[in-house]
C-alpha cells in the first residue's frame, strides 16, 4: 500500500496505474480497458464503519484510494478541529491489512486551506439543503464538505465514491453536487455500521464515557420505534416524529436537536410519507450524533 501526501505524487501514481493496466489507450480502438478507481473520503481514525465502505469499494473497483483529511473548512470555530482524533500510523496499518491500494493524506496547506479560509474558492450547495437539520447548528459545514469533496473528485477522478448513510444529509448534498456540476462519478451510499447496542460507529464515539455511550443509544432506539409505527400503518410526519421524541425524552441528559421527515433528494420536510426515512440528531453533553432509518 502507498501513502501520498501531495497531489502531484498521487496524480503521478494514478497515471502510472492507468498506463500499467491499460494497454489499449486510443479511444478509437475497440475493447478499451481502463483501471476503475473507487474513492473513500474519510477524516481518518478508521473504524468498522469506514472499513465497510472500503470493502464495498474493493468489490467494485480495480484500485481503492482512501483519503484521510481532517477538513478545517467543515469545522465551526467552536468545534473539535484541534482535538479531532488523528491516528495516521494506525490507519495506515489498517488500510494495509484490508487491501487499500493508496492512502491520500494531504496537509491542509497542500489542499490550499491553510491560512486564509475565506479567501479560497468554495463550493456552495443549495441553501435549502445545507441550512436545514444538521446545517442549522453547523453553519458552513456542508459548504466545507462540498468544497473538499469536489477537490478530492478533481484530484483522484474516481469512477465511484463511497459515503455512509449515517451522514444521510451529506449523501443527499453530494448527490446533488455531482448532478448539478456534472461530475463523472457514481455516488454509492453504504449502510450504517453499528455497535451491538445499536449506536452508530463514529470516530467521535471515543469522546463518550461508557455512561454517555449508553445514553446515546436512545437515538437509534427512537428511530426504530418510529419505523415500527410506520410499519403499523402510521404515515403522518407529526405522529411519527412524536413517537421518536417521546422515546428521546426518556433520557434526560440527551438534548434533541431535530427529528425530521424529509424528501431524500431535496431534504424538504414531508407532511406525510410513503417511504420510510427519518433523520435525527441529538447531543449528549456536547457530543453530537446523528442517525437515520430507512
Ligand atoms: P468521517 O471520517 O467521519 O468523515 O467518515 C467518512 C465516511 O465514512 C463518511 O462517508 C461517513 O458517512 C462514513 N461512515 C462513518 N461512520 C460510519 C458508520 N458507522 N457506518 C457506515 N459509514 C460510516
Give the beta-strand count. 9
Which ions and ligands are bound to the chains?
adenosine monophosphate
Q: Tell me, what's the shape?
A: globular
Percentage of β-strand residues: 15-25%
Largest sheet: 6 strands, parallel
What structural class do helix, strand and pairing data support? alpha/beta
SS summary, helix count: 10
How far the N terminus sits from the C terminus, by CA atoms, comes to 35 Å
Stretches where pLDDT is under 50 for at least 5 consecutive residues are none
Order of strands, main sheet, comes to 1-4-3-2-5-6
Residues in helices, as a percent range: 25-40%
Compressed to H and E, one letter per element, the order equals EHEHEHEHHHEHEHHHEEE
Mean pLDDT, to the nearest integer, reads 90
Q: If you compute it from the alpha carbons, what radius of gyration comes out, rounded to the nearest whole angstrom?
A: 20 Å
Report on the structure:
It is built from 10 helices and 9 strands. The two termini are 35 Å apart. The strands form 2 sheets. A 6-stranded parallel beta sheet has the order 1-4-3-2-5-6, with helices on both faces. It has a 3-stranded antiparallel beta sheet with strand order 7-8-9. It is globular. The chain is an alpha/beta fold and 294 residues long. The protein has helices spanning 7-21, 48-60, 88-98, 127-130, 134-137, 141-156, 168-180, 210-216, 218-231, 237-248, and strands spanning 2-4, 37-42, 63-68, 102-104, 160-164, 186-190, 254-261, 278-284, 287-293. Strand 3 (63-68), helix 3 (88-98) and strand 4 form a beta-alpha-beta unit. Adenosine monophosphate (AMP) binds next to helix 2 and strand 5. The site of adenosine monophosphate (AMP) has 17 residues, from helix 2 and strand 5.
